[in-house]
Amino acid sequence: MVHPQEANAVLPGKPLLRGWFHAGAALCSLPLIVVLCWSSREDLPRLFSLLIFGLSTLALYSVSAIYHIGTWRGNWQRRLRAIDHANIFLVIAGTYTPICFNVLTAWQRNLTLITIWLLAGSGVVLALFRPSTPRWVRTGLYLGMGWVSLMILPSILGMLPWLAVFMLFLGGTLYTLGGVVYGLRWPNPFPRILGFHEIFHLFVIAGGWAFVLAIWIWVLPFPRS
């Protein structure tokens, strides 16, 4: 690890805002976890599903902020980068979890959760143990996990109001657009201040909060069967 005085230094070509958007999102995630867990305190299975969502969100933003704001070298850089990439798979699966567990029923609930967590596990293994995997492979897996939602769309349409479905669709679309920006490394408007990676982070935050609203307003009180 570098000297503390160097931790906040800006590497050549590293935008000044790198990581700060996710730092703010991490702080906002803490009260979100408390509210979701408190609101579901009388239903432990529901609470557990919401806790998975909240903790995966907090982990994503926190590790991303630490990795992108600090100046890391050698093994620390490689480890944090691997965990940062792995957390993307976990937050996608973590977002599916309360929706599938509380809204879907029987075999569809189980099949979707097993599918999405197997994909997430595969992504985590690649991120942690095969960090040289090409960017397009990781990006394709991120997007593929996101659009597993097509498999459950008919059921979701029949169980949740149209506005909830719209928010879920909006979240997936924003994640997809962020993935495209990340894969193309474009647009990159202000490389010294706000580059393509910061735009990717903003899309992730916007998509995440669309899911937060859908889960908070409609999934949290949904009468699970």
Describe this structure as you would to a colleague.
This protein has 225 residues and is an all-alpha fold. The protein has one domain. Helix content is 76%, strand content 0%. It has helices at 20-39, 44-69, 74-103, 106-129, 135-146, 149-159, 162-184, 196-219. It is globular, with a radius of gyration of 18 Å. The model is unreliable at 1-11 (pLDDT under 50).
Topology:
Blueprint: H1 20-39, H2 44-69, H3 74-103, H4 106-129, H5 135-146, H6 149-159, H7 162-184, H8 196-219
Helix pairs in contact: 1-2, 1-8, 2-3, 3-4, 4-5, 5-7, 7-8
Tell me briefly what this model is.
The protein is mainly α and 225 residues long.
Considering the chains and any ligands shown, give keywords for the structure:
225 residues, mainly alpha, 0% strand, 8 helices, disordered N terminus
Which structural category fits the helices and strands? mainly alpha
Instruction: Give the fraction of residues assigned to helices.
Output: over 70%
Radius of gyration: 18 Å
Tally of discrete structural domains: 1
Q: Count all strands and give the number.
A: 0
Helix and strand sequence = HHHHHHHH
Outline type: globular
Note the main sheet: none
Distance between the amino and carboxyl termini: 50 Å
- Bin the strand percentage: under 5%
Low-confidence stretches: 1-11
Tell me, rounded to a whole number, the average pLDDT. Answer: 91
Q: How many helices in DSSP terms?
A: 8
